[in-house]
Amino acid sequence: MALTASPYQETTPDTRGYFDLPPIADEAKPGSLDYQILEWAEERLKRGIRFVESQVGYDKIDAAIRMIFDFERSSTLTYVPINAPKSLSATRANFVSKIAEDLTAMLTDTRYFWNYSTENQKYQDQARIANKCAERWYTDRLIDLRIGDVLRYYTVAGTGYAHLYYSRRLDDMMLEAEDPRNVFPIDPLSYHTVQDSLGIIVRRARTPEWFREEFGKVVRAEAGAGTSGGVFGWLTRIIDGPGDRGGPLSKKSNADAPIPHTPTVYVNTLYLNDMRVNKTGRTVRMGKWEDQNGKGVPLTPWSYEVKKGAPLYPFKRMIAWGNGVLGYDGPSPYWHAQYPLIKFTLNPWPMSWFGKAPLWDCLPLNTSLNGLLRVIDDHAAMVAQPGIVADRNVAKSEINKFDSRVPGYKIKTNMASGKGITVVQPPPLDQSLWEHVKWIQDTMQKLSGTADPSAMASLAQIPSDDTIDTIMKAMTPGVRLRSRILEGCYKELASQYLFDFCEFDSLAKRQAILGPQAATKEDFDYFPRTLIPDDVPDGEPGDIAGTENALALDGPRPIYERARMMLLAISCKFDPSSLLNSAAQQEIMKYFLLGKMGYMDVFTIWDKMGIQNVVPPNLTVPATIVERLALQQKLGIGLLVNAQGRKATDQTSPSMGETANGPTIQTS
Fold first, then answer.
1. Segments forming the whole domain that contains residue 293
2. What are the backbone dihedrals phi and psi of residue 471, each rounded to the nearest 5 degrees, phi first?
3. Cα atoms in the 13 Å half-sphere on the side-chain side of 420
4. Is residue 3 part of a domain?
5. Which of 221, 327, 579, 581 would you call most buried, defined as having the most Cβ atoms within 10 angstroms of its Cβ?
């Protein structure tokens, strides 16, 4: 594996001994600054672990996961005793797994739906380009499936985390689901978000090779390699990912290492709200720099200079370590100055950081359901092979040879010596058992909220305005509440991505995606190849963007400050309840209606429908609807009324009907 340079490495990684086994670990020496930082960080890690483990429902997370994967025989949810006869039924119906799948599918039946807009005409091009690039990123990186992983954690734990980070291997932003048992907030103030916490720690199992490639330092494995654990290995062994309560990295719940048969190190990443300021009396350089011709040049977008009295970490601090080795300690790489984790708690409660998972109430019901199914299964076995009663005069060999399940069996009896063998038919099965099975299934669906899709399916209508409106009304308040909370999570994700787009997407990358339209006039100003202006007005006297006076006042300001001021003018908007694909169909029909009235152009309608390759390369489509309508009229194209088909009326929408000849469409 090649040792490529990482933006987190202060120096080029040393390749000496890279293939030696084992290499010398770069453990912090007692008394050194790195050691003191690690001691402080490990203390915060212990505090975060105690907080997470003390939350209501923590013990149910592992039980829910085991039920989904049907580890029933080895869990406390088992119904059949371990020493039970093998002839008893072991039937299991995993409705918990089905409900988790339905919930995830229902909540990920979404589309790219947010929209960046601005009232400032100067930044119209930036908002337009951000929309196009965000939609490309959302579809190409399969972000909806990544969010599906986050929601799977929600179904079992009540909370899932979306970790939006920059991947240097992909040279793009990536979203990854984090196990809520491996995310530890430090001194949180509320349960809705992690952004008001003092800090947050994310723990992941990585290989020592990954650690060395990322941070340029050697670390010894903690699991799967038989190592001692390093300076701080005692804490890892005590916590054990976390503790003895069955965490995802716990050796109690995983016989092998977290990465099976692979040397593993637990990498902790702390994002910290460090409020310290520069008190040195001189300008301090933060991040990675290089001297070129006697002038300092920043090598990463998050490298900057701090003047006297200014904050040292304007967009937070990041500390990464594992097994006694400090990998990185410096500025967080994200201009948005937020923790890059979005907390998905769709059923929040003030009593618990996790909220309440929809599967927790279903666990005992599924256990009860399995017990009923086994009773029914055992009764069916008794009907197929009823029991027998034999007189004591019947030889044991004769009893063993007799099988009551064999059709047309014949028995010889000697009434003078006893009753012989008698077949005992079981009593009829109580029909209330079936009613109870049905009640359990319905109750599990109602408690989890998955009963709503069945109500939608029973409408039996072709999608239309009336149908979609009825579907939305058919949803329970709980589902609508989840949708509203999910929209808030998406808004936080969209806000962070907007900053990351401005920070990491270069002009060359934008042009490769969008072509010549990806360039703005700001890409060719005093600071070329970035769509962030040279200067953004911040209210200072005489501070007018783009003027020589503005540049003289600010010098100009650092690029991350200019990006923040520019992005204040760009907001993320979406209509309430617009997340579901059903709402998308309603929006398309609204645009069609406006088009037939002459108030909407075909280019916008094509864009809403996701139709590609409709505009020839030599045609430039304007940005505003008014200009597009003028272009449409000039080209002589528009929406035409077809002579065929059902004409528009004020009557109800068509619905599916049933006749003797089969299904038909009924109109009125």
1. 280-309
2. -60, -45
3. 10
4. yes
5. 221
Residues 293 and 327 in one domain: no
> Looking at the structure, do residues 268 and 407 belong to the same domain, yes or no?
no
Residues 259 and 210 in one domain: yes
Is 225 among the domain residues?
yes
Mean pLDDT in consecutive groups of 10 residues from the start of the chain, 668 residues? 52 48 74 93 94 93 88 47 65 87 81 77 88 89 91 94 91 93 93 93 92 90 49 39 43 44 88 93 90 84 91 94 93 94 92 92 91 90 87 80 81 70 87 92 86 50 45 60 83 93 90 84 79 69 50 66 87 60 63 81 79 73 84 79 54 56 54
User: Is-cis flag, bond preceding 242, omega within 30?
Assistant: yes
Instruction: Tell the residue number behind the tokens 């020496």, with chain if given.
Output: 29
Distance (Å, rounded) from C-alpha 333 to C-alpha 269? 12
Place of tokens 């119904």: 79
Cβ proximity of 318 and 331 under 8 Å: yes
The structure tokens 């080895």 sit at 74
**pLDDT value of position 528:** 80
Count CB neighbours of 272 within 10 A: 21
78-102 burial by CB neighbour count: b if 16+ within 10 A, else e?
A: bbbeeeeeeeebebbbbbbbbbbeb
- 400 and 323 inside one domain: no
- Quick one: 324 and 397 in the same domain? no
Give yes or no: residues 417 and 285 share one domain: no
Instruction: Flag whether 628 is in a domain.
Output: yes
197 lies in the same domain as 323:
yes
Pairing of β 570-573 and β 115-118 = antiparallel
Outline where 402-534 has alpha helix (H). 432-448, 452-457, 465-474, 477-504, 507-514
Residue 257 lies in a domain: yes
On the question of a cis peptide bond just before residue 22, with omega within 30 degrees of 0, the verdict is yes
Q: Count of domains in the chain?
A: 4
Instruction: Output the pLDDT for position 294.
Output: 78
Q: How many residues does the chain have?
A: 668
The answer to whether 663 and 470 are in contact (CB under 8 A) is no
